Amino acid sequence: MLTYIARRVLLMIPTLIGIMLVSFIIIQFAPGGPVERIIAQVTGQGTNATDRFSGGSGADIANSLQNQRAASNDPITSKYRGAQGLDPEFIKQLEKQFGFDKPPLERFGKMMWDYARFDFGRSYFRDINVVDLILEKMPVSISLGLWMTLISYAISIPLGIAKAVRDGSRFDVWTSSVIVVGYAIPSFLFAILLIVLFAGGTFLDWFPLRGLTSDNWSQLSLFGKVVDYAWHMALPLTALAISAFATTTLLTKNSFLDEIRKQYVQTARMKGLTENQVLYRHVFRNAMLLLIAGFPGAFIGAFFSGALLIETIFSLDGLGLLGFESIVNRDYAVVFANLYIFSLLGLVVALISDVSYMWVDPRIDFETREV
């Protein structure tokens, strides 16, 4: 067991480096970048940098570049589009500020060395450490991801078991129809429908439209905070969960059907055990192996699947919206930090998932399993 865990941990290192290297290479060939963005904003081709990123290092340099451009009208050739008329010394200062004055291989090596020590630096355009910025947005994504996964499993597993026991019945047919229809509905369209119906749109005004809590959150009692939090989360979670039941429900049903048809189930019935004893004492443990394996992936995926649009629609400032804005704004410090943290988290959770197999079924031997 320990040998297997050690091998998996060692395998995480080249896997993580490979993920970061591929992403880094793609970024090198992608058009635009933080330098080009600042230049575009200074030359009037984009939004004002100091309005969007006040207080950040990019804004400070943008101010200097604006002043320098006002004092210089000489056409100067530059490798950056739109940089004509800007002092080359300030362009070099801008490159140094963002770390682009070094060769790509050196920049990648330094980035990985810093990330190995969990030093993610500061955001290019916001006056804040990347870790603090991620932690600031984390509660929203954790709330959405955790509750959506738990609610999905809490409904899908009992429903899947009921469908397996009643396989082919009218209940099985109409619940399958409902699940397929729900899976086909895009979460963001359903979110808009919920807003129109229940959040002050054309019809009712029962639920809030934005945020995780009310403005008077600090003044509420403990029970009041719980109610207020559930009140704000009701519509976003409903929108996310509408299509989250299909896979888990059908996987649960098929797993139980496969186990119910095995010989040991017939033997247990011949011994006089009731259907509930057979189902939950024998079938349940074996059928749940696939679901346990899929839980970590579903939990991690819940942070990203549809979260961006839901966060935007309901004005929830979470990691999905942060990642999207960072890519648009070429804030590579935040982009790569997000990628590194969640890639590492995904690898660790995958290992936990494998170890969970042994907890459910001690017959699994990791010592003889190939990585």
How would you summarize the topology of this molecule?
Blueprint: H1 2-29, H2 34-42, H3 49-52, H4 57-71, H5 88-98, H6 104-116, H7 130-165, H8 170-184, H9 187-198, H10 222-241, H11 245-260, H12 263-270, H13 275-287, H14 289-301, H15 307-313, H16 319-328, H17 332-360
Helix pairs in contact: 1-17, 2-4, 4-5, 7-10, 7-11, 7-17, 8-11, 9-10, 11-13, 14-17, 15-16, 16-17
Protein name: Microcin C ABC transporter permease YejB
Keywords: Cell membrane, Membrane, Transmembrane, Transmembrane helix, Transport
Organism: Hansschlegelia plantiphila
What does this protein look like?
InterPro entries: MetI-like, MetI-like_sf. One of its GO terms (biological process) is transmembrane transport. Keywords: Cell membrane, Membrane, Transmembrane, Transmembrane helix, Transport. With 371 residues, this protein is mostly helical. The protein has two domains: 95 residues, no CATH class; 198 residues, MetI-like fold (Orthogonal Bundle). The protein is globular and about 85 Å long. The protein starts with a helix and ends in an 11-residue tail after the last helix. About 5% of the residues have low confidence.
Features:
371 residues, transmembrane helix, mainly alpha, 17 helices, MetI-like, MetI-like fold, Microcin C ABC transporter permease YejB, single chain, 2 domains, 70% helix, 0% strand
Number of strands: 0
Main beta-sheet strand count, sense and barrel state: none
Fraction of residues in H or I helices: 55-70%
Q: How many independent structural domains?
A: 2
| Cα shape | globular
Which CATH architecture of the largest domain?
Orthogonal Bundle
Structural class: mainly alpha
Give the topology string: H per helix, E per strand: HHHHHHHHHHHHHHHHH
The CATH class of the largest domain, by name, is: Mainly Alpha
Report the β-strand fraction as a percent range: under 5%
Low-confidence stretches: 47-55, 69-77
What fold name stands as the CATH topology of the largest domain?
Answer: MetI-like fold
Q: What is the CA-atom radius of gyration, in angstroms?
A: 26 Å
Q: What is the overall number of helices? A: 17
